[in-house]
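Example protein was shown:

_____
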Amino acid sequence: MDSDGGEDWTMSVQIAEPYVEPPDDVDMEMAISNLKNRKATGHDQIPPKLIKEGGNCLEILIYFHLSE
């Protein structure tokens, strides 16, 4: 017990997420090629078909966005 009569306790809370390596270019190509064409959009409202047909330019933009 501490000096004011209350209990002495501490709380340990983890607030940081574990570090995860950003995907490499091979991982990106595999993930994009495995997208299904006729699926609903996610929260970003981008259809999977658009991502698949975006080509190398879009893949590079996504890669750099994820590695920030």
